[in-house]
Predict the structure.
Amino acid sequence: MKQIRKIAVNTGGGDAPGLNAVIRAVAITAHAKGWECWGIREGYNGLFLPERFPQGGLIRLTPEVVQGITNLGGTILGTTNVGNPLKYPTKQPDGTVVEVDRSEEIVSLFRQQEFDALVALGGDGSLTIANALAKKGLRVVGVPKTIDNDLDGTVITFGFDTAVSFATECLDRLHTTAASHRRLMVVEVMGRYAGWIALNTGISGGADAILLPEIPYDLEKVAAHLNARQAEGKSYAIVVVAEGAVSKGGTSAVIEKRVGAADRLGGAAENVSHALAELTKKETRHVVLGHLLRGGSPTTFDRLISLRFGAAAVRALAEGQSGVMVALDPPTVRYVPLAQATHRMKVVPLDCDSILSARELGICLGD
Ligand code: F6P
């Protein structure tokens, strides 16, 4: 196998706290091995749309460049969750837009730049692209990023803990205003089609009900639960709604369908809030935490796993690995095939301890 001299790192999909910590770990550990480390800006755009970047589509990541970024949210490389190179939206002469596979182009641009390997930081979409590139012969190691925690093969993704910590703090704040006004507060959190953020936030933040995509809800039952709580003397209530939550027989609330990118979800809390206001006759407000969950400094837990993941990704390349993702399997970090990590979405198992605990704590799950 060819000796590695020069590697690239990129960040794709929605940003998540911890991306910069991974970038720093990759750059420093690669430098220590005598490898050059380069960042590709905005997913793969820095390679195939360099004209977009006046300062160049690629940036040399020396230890000086990555100094002091561990605690910064966002990504110094920029990212994108549109323009998937496997399904690149391309306008046809008749004005229609079709999805075109541009992965061969990336492989040849990669070779032109003499990159020997890629460390791809991303969620299911970005790691599916990484897997396709690995199959075309690039040496690729993936790092599992997403606040949604919906990637298979790893116990946790970085960014998730920060998102849940902040959402829990928001719930703490909502308790006091809800109690002061005897209101029902309906809080929407991100997570796409998986309920991990909603479930963990709702339990930690003392919600009365949590609505997840995994358990289609019946609002009559939720209202009965809230009314019973009120009869017991609780004058206010908090309901956490995952953005992908679905009513029995219904579908997730979508605000935009896109070519070459995932549907945009939105409106779940608003719908639930209007319906529960009717059913409970309580004064109701809804709050969408949305992108606030993607910002801010990573928690200590996220910093630590991000730094460990970054170092492990470079270690994996040095050991000759490719087509794998680094994964947390406490107490260790191991490698799993990218194909395994991306073959299905990791949703909340209905028989898991957290679901059982939520029920035992008296939280209504909408069923
Ligand atoms: O996957 C991360 C995520 O934040 C989801 O939780 C959310 O549905 C989506 O990205 C939002 O994407 P955008 O930044 O395009 O609004």
Q: What stands out?
A: The chain has two domains: 6-158+298-330, 162-293+349-360. The two ends are 55 Å apart (CA to CA).
